[in-house]
Write a structure and sequence with these properties.
The chain is mainly beta and 60 residues long. 10% of the residues lie in helices and 48% in strands. Strands 2-1-4-3 form a 4-stranded antiparallel sheet. The N and C termini lie far apart (28 Å).
Length: 60
């Protein structure tokens, strides 16, 4: 049996594109340790629609 870890998969979505009202969405899947980072994470990732690096926030 595999052991259960603290790492979970989370989805990051661009908040700048959401605010601007441009159709589509830039999303990334990553993992985080829920024990070390219980809060939602924010990372700078590349948005191919806006063609620049933007802040992506964890969604539920």
């Amino acid at each position: 049996m595999g052991k259960k870890g603290n790492r979970i998969q989370v989805i990051l979505e661009c908040i700048e594109q959401k605010k601007s009202g441009i159709s589509g969405s830039s999303r990334y899947i990553t993992t985080k340790n829920k024990k070390n980072t219980p809060n939602r994470i924010k990372l700078k990732k590349y948005n191919p629609i806006l063609k620049k690096y933007t802040i992506h926030k964890e969604i539920k």
